[in-house]
Amino acid sequence: MPAAITALRRLGESARVAIGARGRQNRAIVLTPGVAIMPPFSIPRAHRWAWYATALIAAALCVSTLSPVMPAIGPPSSDKIQHFIGFAALASPLGFAYPRRTLAIVAAATLFGAGIELVQPFVGRSAELADLVADALGATTGALAMRALRR
């Protein structure tokens, strides 16, 4: 069984719906007449756009921050502004979709930025603590701004 599957539940032959942790009905995937698996979590359709947008922005950030060094555009400090804007954009979709999860979203975006900074020396770029600070500030600003919009 794949590691992502969190629980196997024994269900009757006709069981296709099981009660989740919060009392919601979740679809079970029936493997055999007596065994079904529950997905680790289900993403509501209304929030899928946020996950797709976040994945797309994360891919763009990876390409832009892990590609070979290009000539700088703008003043020398504009690199930090670009990090700030990029990570504000990264945290915004999930911050809007999940306003109660702001801290987790900021932490995940900051860890993503730290991962990028750790990989950069292996692709011919330099890792800077100031970039990580700009990433964290941008993620915080983006997530909090979207949370404020939801109120």
Account of the 3D structure:
- The N and C termini lie far apart (42 Å).
- The model is unreliable at 1-23 (pLDDT under 50).
- The radius of gyration is 20 Å and the shape is elongated.
- Helix 2 packs parallel to helix 4.
- Strand 2 (17-19) and strand 3 form a beta hairpin.
- It has four helices and five strands, in the order βββββαααα.
- It has two domains: 7-38, no CATH class; 45-150, no CATH class.
- The chain has 151 residues and is mainly α.
- It has helices at 45-66, 78-97, 102-119, 129-150, and strands at residues 7-10, 17-19, 25-27, 29-32, 35-38.
- The strands form two sheets. It has a three-stranded antiparallel beta sheet with strand order 1-5-4, with no helix packed on it.
Rough outline: elongated
Task: Give helix and strand order, one letter per element, not per position.
Answer: EEEEEHHHH
Approximately how much beta-strand content do the residues carry? 5-15%
Overall average residue pLDDT: 77
Biggest sheet details: 3 strands, antiparallel
Strand order of the largest sheet: 1-5-4
How many structural domains in the coordinates? 2
Q: Could you say which structural class the secondary elements and strand pairing correspond to?
A: mainly alpha
What's the N-to-C terminus distance?
Answer: 42 Å
What gyration radius follows from the Cα positions, in whole Å? Answer: 20 Å
Tell me the number of helical segments per DSSP (H or I, 4 or more residues long).
4
Given as residue ranges, the uncertain stretches (5+ residues, pLDDT < 50) are: 1-23
DSSP E strands, number: 5
Instruction: Determine the fraction of residues in helical runs and give it as a percent range.
Output: 40-55%
